[in-house]
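Bit of a strange request maybe. I'm writing a small parser for structure token strings and I need a real example to test against, not something I typed by hand. Could someone generate the tokens for this chain?
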Amino acid sequence: METKHLKSTHFSDYIEPSQVVLDLKANNKVEALEELLDILEKQKLIKNKKPILTRIIDRERLESTGIGHCIALPHARINAGHDIAVVAGISEKGIEFEAIDGKKVKIIVLIIWNPTIPGLFNHLFAGLAKFLMKPKFRARLIEAKSKKELYQVFSEIELKIPLQLDKIMHRAGLLWKLQEIEIQKKKAKKGKKTELMQQSELIRAELDTTLLDRFDRLMERYGFAVAEVEDGACQGCYINVATGMGSAIEGSNDIYVCENCGKFLVATKKE
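Reply from user aminoacidic:
Good idea to test on real output. This should exercise your parser:
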């Protein structure tokens, strides 16, 4: 199933009944990833699961793709033989995924996409996250009684190419991690620097080009691009942010921009 463009409007344009699993047998994260990759390999949507599994695990070590509410969206940007390969599974008992809310994951959608197609992951991620965050929709997936019913529910997911400033595309945790890596790279020795460059590449693969351009300019000019909001003030310029923005940032993984200094804002990291 090769994607010729990004105008598709439903998740069913990327997934078929053979690519959904009603009851995952896996007991842990790695087993779940292998089980889902086995399906893609059987459907000839990927050629070799081993390098893909390694890439996905490397990505998970940076930041769990368990986005909360029993949902995980593991992924890899790698040439696997097709433009995109998607597989989805449900775990009735739940799988420990180190999710941001600490809850076990029951809904897993694994996405692999070709590096030559910019914006494809963001396109899928935005549409998936919007629907999966709805409690009633999640319940219908988890409570599906047959593979056919499960596929039908997934087919209802509508996908729209996100706007440039759609915050759902932009993960604050990833941008903060990228800043830490870029700072460490300046002091790292050769061996460690190579490892950090690989981690940077994984993160950059998921972030919007416009976002990265701004990030790189800020890093070059100030030495940092992401600032915490503490006691209602941007820690990059120490000017208070708008009350509404301060409340929205708290507990959020979206990215906001300081209206005074232009740096990206994230909530203060809890000890």
